[in-house]
Automatic annotation (TrEMBL):
Cell compartments where the protein resides: Membrane
Organism of origin: Adineta ricciae
Keyword Membrane applies: yes
UniProt-listed InterPro entries: FKTN/MNN4/W02B3.4-1
Major subcellular site: membrane
Record key words, sorted: Membrane, Transmembrane, Transmembrane helix
Membrane-related topology note: Single-pass membrane protein
Protein name according to UniProt: Uncharacterized protein
Gene Ontology, cellular component aspect: membrane
Amino acid sequence: IGWYRHCGLIPYTQDVDFGLFAEEYDESIRQYFLGNSHVYLWGTLGLVNDSLEFRLHTGQFTFDLFWAYREDDHRWCGYQVKRVKYRRIIPLLAKLCSGDLFGYRFTVPCSPIDYLNNEYGYNLWRKPLEKNYTWINVKYHSIWDDTLWMYAIRLYTRDGKPRTDKYAINWIANQLNSSPQMLSTIRNILLRNSLNN
């Protein structure tokens, strides 16, 4: 929407979203961003086969990489609020075109107006809003159970190590809507994850 409507970034945006095909996921992508000196992996939500999202930081900007899963006549990306799983439905595009953004070429829908109408509603995307944007293509799917959601959230230090500090525990506990009694369980899982990486 920024590329098409503003010919650049949305002036008041807080992050930039990218979509990638889930079937092209490779663990080397995660490894590339862990500890990357320019754009580092701050955290992940979801699992490789379910609603995966990477949150990247430069120290100044945030980038969200959403993995798009193919299903029947569409793709979907996971959108997660606390433990609630939503799916953002994206139509299959017969072909993609190329667009310039700040001197770099990006793959874009060949019919951007149709795509934006599908995302935000017919012509609703034309009026810039600083907040309270809604997508018409986001549908409730399910709720993560406690165990899967604890494994589906990972935070990383700037040098690429799994975070097991108080901040990470409290952040994950907040995402879980969990009680203080669950903190020891979260801590144990974080420690186990850090040993496995």
